[in-house]
Structure formats: C-alpha cells, structure tokens
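Need tokens for this chain, all 311 residues.
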Amino acid sequence: AFLVTFPCVVTFTMTDQTALASALADIQRDGVLILPDDVAYELCRKWQRRFRIVNRASLIIAGLACALMIVFNCIAYSTPGVGFWVSITGELRSKMVACAFLYCICCLYSVDLIYIIRSVAMSVFLNDVAVHGQLRLLPFHPDKCGGLRPIGRFGLRDQYVMTLLGINIAFLVIVTVRYLQPPSTLWGLVGAAAVVYMILGPTAFVAPLLSFHGAMIRTKAELLSEIAQRLRVELQRLRKELPSGKLLREDEELIDRLRKVGAVIDQLPVWPFDAATLRRFLTAYGTPLIGMVSYNWLRGLMQGFLAWMNH
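Here are the structure tokens for all 311 residues:
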C-alpha cells in the first residue's frame, strides 16, 4: 500500500493537469473541438481561480478525513482479540509503531481523496469546455470515436487509480478474513471501503466523459437534422416534378448520396471511447474483484487437496 500504491497515486496526482491539457490539445489539433480565443481566455481565467479553491479545499478535507481514519483504525484494531500485528495484546504495541502505521494509512488515503476531488473538479471543467466549445465530430476518424478518444483515455486514467485503491481493499479483505478475528467495527471499516470502490470505480471512468457524451449526442442530432431537412427539400421538389415526369438520373443519385451520408452520420458514436478502451476499463475495474474470488477459490482448492492427502 505505502511502497507501491502511494507513489503511483502521487505521480498520477502530480501529472493530472498535464494529462488533461494533452487530451484537450489532441482533439483541438484534429479540429474536433473549436475554442475561440475569447472563450478559451475566459475559461482559463475562471477555472484558474476555481482550481485554486479546489486544491485548498481538498487539503482541508483530506486533513479531516485523516483524523477520522485515525479514530476508526484505533477503535477497530485496538479491540482485544482482533489479532492485528499492531495490537496483538489488545492495545497498541508502541507509540512509534502505531504512529508509523497510522501515518502510512493517512498518507495513502488522503492522497487518494485529493485525487478524487481534483477529478471531480476536472469533470466539471470538461463539461464547461463542452458547453462553450464547438464540437465537430469526424465520422471517419481512425480512433472510431469521432476524434474524441483522448478524452476516453483520460477517464481510463482515473480508473487506474481506482484499481490501485481496489487492490489494497482486496488485500484488506483477504488479511481480515484470513488472519484476524474481526469485530463489527472492523467489518464496517472493510465494508465501507469495498462499497466506496464499487461506486467510485465506474464513476471515475464515466464522470469525465458525460459532458462530451451530451455534446456528441447534440452534434449527431444536428447533423442528422441537416440531412433530414435537405432530404425534405429535395423530396418536395421531386413531388412537384413527378406529374410532368421530369425525373432525372441526377435526382436519383442525389437522393442516394444523401441517404448514404445520413447512414454514415447515424453510425457516429455517442461516447468518447472505443471498444479497446472499454475492455481496458472492465479489466481494470474487475481486477480487484477477480483477485479476491481467485484467492478464495485457490485457498479452498488447496485446503481440499491437503485434506485429501491427509486422508
């Protein structure tokens, strides 16, 4: 938790702004997102102030969360009979060991909380960008997302952090079940951590994408509306010429082209991720759950094998 997950989460937190800027730069360079200079300047001015407030608020909230985690961990692990290495005799072994343990726990989950709060703020920022910018989807873009796959990968980045958190929760459950005699307070702590992961996992991936999801739906509807209006005009013209029999081959070809263009637009995606990104999300989200199930299955298999050997 402290030697692997903690530095990874710190790295993700320090580079989240760079990742966001890179994703927006990619879709602007391809002409998928158009931000006029005055709109970009206003967004920059407004969100520079907001992110400053978010950063300060996240530090305060993380500090309060650390205080609560210290209280809950002391109550859960200092209960007599739990059997945790920090308090085997029913009380904390030493102040130095207890402080080191609580320090590591607070560092890990406070940085996780800061990252989550910043991710929520970035999701709201992306919604502001999608509302004030002009979205121009490209039907034949190689990324199969209309040119918005960088936004989907940015959401996948948040899921990787949640997966690291979920792996730690999986180890917490395994250690609790395998080695400890958990009281109700400890089960409450473990259950709360598991519920948080189950909820935040999909939310972390979908939240940055929701704003562009709505913008993609609106853009697709506008394009289809333009095709429908042009078809209506052409059909009305052909109806007037139908009695006189002045239908030309060019009219048939025009209607056929409009139908083909409409079919292409209708195939535009409405989510900024492709099948590969979705598979990565499902793999990352399911890794902690599969790990716990596999551990329990292998443990039961080994116990059955040993019992058979002893018999």
